[in-house]
Amino acid sequence: MSWLSSVFFAQTPAVTKESPDVLDNEVLDQWRIPFGDWSREIIFWIDNQMQSVLDVIEWPFKQLIDLLVRDFLLEISWVWVVLILMAVAILARNIKVGVFVGVALFICGILGDNYWIETARTIGFIAVAVLLCAIIGIPVGVLCGRFEGVWKGVRPVLDAMQVVHSFVYMLPFIFFWGIGEVSATMVTMVFALPPLIRLTNLGIRQVPADVVEAARAYGATEMRVLFDVQFPLARPAIMTGLNQTLLLSISMLGIAAIMGAGGLGQLLFRAISGQDVALAASAGLAFFLVAVVLDRISQREASDTGNLLRRIRMAWANRRTPEALLPSADQAVAQPEVIPGKFAAISKNERIFMTFAFVGAAIAIISTFLTWTSNAGKMSAFGRLADLSAEGQLDGMNFNGLNASGGSWFGISVLALGVFMIISVTLSYFFPGRPPRWLAVDAFLIAAVSATSLATAHIFARSYSSLVRNSEGLPIQPPDPGTGIGVILALVGGLIAVGGAIGWLSSARYTPYFPLRTTITWTRLFGVVIALLILIGSMFASWSVDQRAETVVSAELQAQIDDLRERANEPGASATLATELLVLRARASDAEDVINDGITADGSQLGLWAMVAGGLALMTGFPAFNLYSYRERRLWLWSALTAGFGASAAFISFSWIATHVRSSDVNFASGVGSFFAMGAGLMIVAFVLPALRKIRRTRIYDDPPALPKPTPTNSANR
Length: 718
Hints:
Blueprint: H1 2-8, H2 35-49, H3 51-73, H4 78-92, H5 95-110, H6 113-146, H7 148-163, H8 166-177, H9 181-205, H10 209-217, H11 222-251, H12 253-258, H13 264-274, H14 277-298, H15 308-317, E1 342-343, H16 348-367, E2 371-374, E3 398-400, H17 409-430, H18 441-460, E4 468-469, E5 475-476, H19 485-507, E6 510-512, H20 522-539, E7 542-546, H21 549-552, H22 555-569, H23 575-589, E8 594-597, H24 606-624, H25 632-663, E9 668-670, H26 672-693, E10 695-697, E11 699-700
Antiparallel strand pairs: 1-11, 2-3, 4-5, 6-10, 7-8, 7-9
């Protein structure tokens, strides 16, 4: 093959080494294509000669980011941002989605100011990216759908945008527009834009041709055909395209963080780089909530199924074939059938029990404005030493159920449940059968049981009893916060509401719309047993982790510190005493954390009460899951009670966690046991809800009109 090498590879006299054979890999170095050098020269030329064009391209990105993020989201109060997005969710979807959006963003806010700032930046960044994708993608998709030549030219570009990894074209964007939000938004658009163009094109093409021709035959202009015929019929596909663009934009937040775009992705990137578990957990929670909020707002009404991670995975898997995400004709969600007839009227007995239920709920609401604790905090004192009244500054003070030193989130939860019960019984009284299913009598019973359990747990929970020290270092026994009239009244009101709800449920005219199982539902029973085992385990897990120096210092160490203080005040004390004092303080800060489980006498023992609620859920679950006998009314009642006790365990745990989120000192946090208990309570509710959803208010159907009797004929007259 030497002759072939001499033909294709010229040899210069300066080369003394024999040229490699064409079959050798070394020959590739002589035919190296300098594609990188060509690209560099092109980029340098564009940067030097077309700076004005680059500025024009950058202008809309920069202006929108400055207007939406810096001048709006970061300038106004976080409360207004939450309310605005709630209003958008209600207008775009429904009240249920709006409430979820408000709760999710509220959680992002209470994570801290720094997290909220990055949350606002993330929302603004994604909003700008999706808005610009819509401005570009929908018109291009329409052109592709109406003109075949445009589609043939655009399709290869879309394939390249989806196949080439973002790392490949990231550097040119950074080179042209620098590190920051502008270049990150452009890279995000390159990745997220194709599904919107493809689905818009598909939606326009799927409009029946006879409908379009009929519109033209009636004299409609092309613009009327587009906006009055094609756009309305293509709307499901276009909305799916917008949702897919949003999901892909969310998945690019990590790349945007690398490019210096800021937001929650930057916090996650920083947490991974520094192996900061706490930062990663908080930023990850906020990231997840923002992603779910934006996804729920952009979904179509019939596409609420599937969790966020699955939807993002499907969006990635179908980047080149987004039409596969559209439901087929046989998979389309059927509209609920309109059932004729009217709902059964409320009977006299039902009205009586509804009145009792209303009174109990009203008492529970009123109780939250009365005294729950005095002289010191009860739940809040575990996490905030100021509530222990070590200096006597809280002596003689009373705290109601909403005060941080009073009922705190136990009282707030009772108030929320009371308002829910009032709404439920009022709407059911005046509009029987019309309110949403989650406002029915069984939901009232669940809320009443939860409110009663919260008041019971607050009354019988232990208060903080460990010795504390005043400013002079002297040990003081914390005062007993006592039990105020408010929490007792909350218990009384809850019991009245429970009694009224049981009577209301027993006399209410409700009927299963779907057949109930007549055999033992072992799956649900097994799930409740597992949840109870988790609750038992949560009792022995940590419910509070105290790292404060004021509480982790042992008596021996405190005695040494007191002795050094006295010696330091003596005349002629040396500077070495101050050094020794600093060493002892350092030892105090490094002391072992104080961890209390859910049953220890030094803690609140709320884990025990959460387990009691779980045990009652299991006891009521036996008849609820057909273990004894099958009677629809009893199954319904026991199922509602089981869900109520499961919700009670969840509410007790949640109120403990939220109380210390609201008022605890630094270095004090709720333990993992409280989270396990809350999850187990929600698990019980989840296993019972399917049975409750099958029961609705009875419908009454009018008898059809009687047919006229045939007139007898006399055969003799024929």
